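Lecture notes, structural biology module. Today: joint structure prediction for complexes of two components.
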Amino acid sequence: RKEVEQDPGPFNVPEGATVAFNCTYSNSASQSFFWYRQDCRKEPKLLMSVYSSGNEDGRFTAQLNRASQYISLLIRDSKLSDSATYLCVVNRQAGTALIFGKGTTLSVSS
Amino acid sequence: DVKVTQSSRYLVKRTGEKVFLECVQDMDHENMFWYRQDPGLGLRLIYFSYDVKMKEKGDIPEGYSVSREKKERFSLILESASTNQTSMYLCASRRDRAYGTEAFFGQGTRLTVV
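The predicted structure, tokenised, for the full assembly:
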């Protein structure tokens, strides 16, 4: 089993749609969780961290379920500018590097 | 502003050559990383470093080595380049070993080995 697994996508949605991405991780010792965004031919950039209590940043909501080892990202009212690849990222444990899922591609059309 | 700079955007090398990819960060970060990114495989960790002269293998270290002689600079070395090392290489840095800190990436080096 891969350490971080994501929906393969691609997700093709119209503007204004709500879309959800899922991610599972295999290492129960994982301590920190993130969603990164990567635009075409660009480097990944942090979108948001994911906390056990769930957290929201504008149209984006991230959830973490430690018992199920599951992370989600919800995007409401999708914009054309949301088109990108979304990377689920896990920090195994203190002092080790970030491990990336393969990413899910989102394409928002008008 | 946070800055991670990779020495080349595009590089073409011949099979068997020794290749150096350089990465410099100006944020005084302790941690630095090298990843490669390939279609369908995502970002895979090659090596990382906690501090000067410290290094640890990631998930795919074979055929690579690293050097960190100064805190701000982390070099990836391909000892004898092979065609299967054609890839996008991404360097990243991170403030410390604590949980939850953000990693910042360089713009990437697209290496082609012919």
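Point to remember: The CA atoms of residues 95 and 101 of chain B lie 7 Å apart.
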